Amino acid sequence: MRILLVTHRFAGEQAGGTEILADDLARALTARGLDVTWLAAGDPPSPPRRTAAEYISVPAVFAHDYPVGWRAQEVQQAARIELLLNGRPAVDLVHVLHFSRIGLAFLDSAPLRDVPVVATLTDYTAVCPDHQLLVRSTGAQCTSTAPSTSCVGCLGAPTVAAGDVESWRARNVAWLNGRVRALWTQTPHQAAELAKAGVTVDKVVRDRACYGLPDSWQSPAGSGGGGEYLLFLGRCSPEKGLQVLLDALAHSPTTLPLLVATVPDDAAYEERMRLVAAADPRVRWLPPLSRADVGPVLAGARALLAPSQWWENHPIVAHEARALGVPVWSSAVPSMRHLADDDGGVHLVEQYTDPASWRQAIDAAAACQEPRVPSFGRRASAFEAFVDEMVGVYRKEVTG
To answer: Nearest-CA neighbor of 347 among 363, 328, 321?
Structure first.
């Protein structure tokens, strides 16, 4: 069976959760005998890091305010993709994980027009052109039913562009309800929010994320100790809440270091945060980490701190921390609550926009002496079962 995985970018050294999930899927599907091709915008990883049989790269040329003018941009991208697919073996199934730099028009090109499609939604892109249902000007949470006139502000686009955004959102919902045969979401809250926007959820196979784990982490998972530092790990953007955490740390008496490891995202924001961090000798900003490096850094932490200021979508780092037995203090955002219900090692900060609440969380995390109970094996086995289930869905859709 030939599978075409589709994401907005490839998994490089600084990969985010979507790319890591796609990378793990490519590896696991290949191990099961499937022929995987990965389509994305931008440069593919170097040959030693590749997990798919083939990589198809298109330029990342969408305008910064996409989906303004989305039709013309997607038609041009679809023409590039059609040329690249022509002459290659026919695809049996397309699995779309993210389309913000690819679009969806390519699915109507001749090589893919009659091919079954499934989708995993790793954020809110289908209903939010800025991906995360966050009002950028204020940091307030938005909703999937917000009028498209409010979306143009986050895009920095003129009000007259609201029609483009509205038609794009409608197209995405129609695609999910029509062309897509099976759907995976990351959290129950995400599925419910998509349903508010008109997405029919009867196609949802599973509404809880499942991630792979690097085999090299099995040794860190078995190590003991209470950890020598607190850890922030994630994208360097305001919605991840580093600014709240640094403010809270400034008023905390803890002597534990705070290690900060980020994936580049918002350059101006990162510059500001580095200036704030430089003023506190307890803060150590780590150089970029490969995924292999993340495991030992996580295992050495007293606790992982996740002060997200948006609804989140089961961040992969929380899964990884708990696999290694590291306790997590997280904002009590809707998409994290089910994790705390299932795992006593996840502690929720209810007033998560308030630095004073995070100061209390920092103090509690610093004093934490919870026994380390790694769940690496159980979670690794759960991912294997998840992929088996996914392959079963693939086969069902391909055979009709």
So the answer is: 328
Single-letter code of the amino acid located at 34: L
**Are 267 and 290 a contacting pair, CB within 8 Å?**
no
pTM of the complete model beyond 0.90: yes
Cβ–Cβ < 8 Å for 36, 30: yes
β-bridge mates for residue 231, sequence order: 259, 304
Residue 193 burial (C-beta neighbours within 10 Å; 0-12, 13-18, 19+): buried
Sign of CA dihedral 57, 58, 59, 61: negative
pLDDT digits (tens, 9 = 90+) for 376-397: 999 999 999 999 999 999 999 9
Phi and psi dihedrals of 40, rounded to 5?
A: -160, 170
- The model's confidence at residue 220, banded by pLDDT at 50, 70 and 90, is low
CA dist., res. 330 & res. 321, Å (int): 12
In the numeric block, which tokens belong to residue 247?
Answer: 């403010």
Query: Under a CB-based contact definition with an 8 Å cutoff, are residues 129 and 152 in contact?
Result: no
What would the two tokens of residue 58 be?
């298109």
Amino acid at 154: C
Residue 224 structure tokens: 């003991």
Residue entry with tokens 């085999």: 215
- Give percent above pLDDT 90 in the chain: 79
Q: What average pLDDT score do residues 185-212 get? A: 94
Q: Residue 154: helix, strand or coil by DSSP?
A: helix
